[in-house]
Amino acid sequence: MKRERFLAEYRAEDRDELAQLLVDTPPRHITARGWTMPDGTRARVYLLRFNSTAYATHIRDELRVGPSMARPSAGAVETEFDTAWTFSRAVQGVSSYVFTEEAPHGEAHTRLAYSIAGDTFALIVHERPGPAEAARIPFHQTVILHNQLLG
């Protein structure tokens, strides 16, 4: 169930390939949590734990996570590196890649981050329906707090 929910974060045309990636590089455990904030922003966090750091890094590489993203999330039309995220927020031992949806966005504005800490790969998503953007500061706080838990 959590595997399917994680895959649902990606575009339909990418899901079969990503599902096969999770078969070829199976996580030991997937956990997911979500909540809705008072302004309607929906937050979701996925943690995938693998047998080694090499597997988590392999997933990052296959998803092509870096300064740009080759596989955007299902809710984002086009994403870009979040230039407001600075390395001063870094947690030792955790690598983070933070993105925001470019304007104009679709039915909702999406912010997402990937974090790698040892054998754990995390995906953090904030999605706010309507014309307003998902707030940057609460999203960055979510990323920082999860990175501190992973670090």
Description of the structure:
With 151 residues, the protein is α+β, with helices and mostly antiparallel strands. The protein has one domain (2-150): 3-Layer(aba) Sandwich (Protein Transport Mog1p, Chain A), CATH 3.40.1000. 29% of the residues lie in helices and 30% in strands. It is built from four helices and six strands. Strands 1-2-6-5-4-3 form a six-stranded antiparallel β-sheet. Strand 4 (95-101) and strand 5 form a beta hairpin. The longest helix has 15 residues, at 136-150. It is globular, with a radius of gyration of 14 Å. The two termini are 27 Å apart. The model has no long low-confidence stretch (mean pLDDT 89).
Fraction of residues in β-strands: 25-35%
Q: Report the helical percentage.
A: 25-40%
CATH architecture descriptor text: 3-Layer(aba) Sandwich
CATH fold-level topology: Protein Transport Mog1p, Chain A
Characterize the largest beta sheet: strand count, sense, and whether it forms a barrel: 6 strands, antiparallel
* Estimated radius of gyration: 14 Å
Q: Give me the strand/helix succession.
A: HHEEHEEEEH
- How is the largest sheet built, in terms of strand order? 1-2-6-5-4-3
Mean pLDDT: 89
CATH class categorisation: Alpha Beta
Task: State the end-to-end CA separation.
Answer: 27 Å
Low-confidence stretches: none
Number of helices: 4
Q: What is the domain tally?
A: 1
Give the overall shape, derived from the CA principal axes.
globular
Determine the structural class based on helices, strands and strand pairing: alpha+beta
- Topology, number of strands: 6
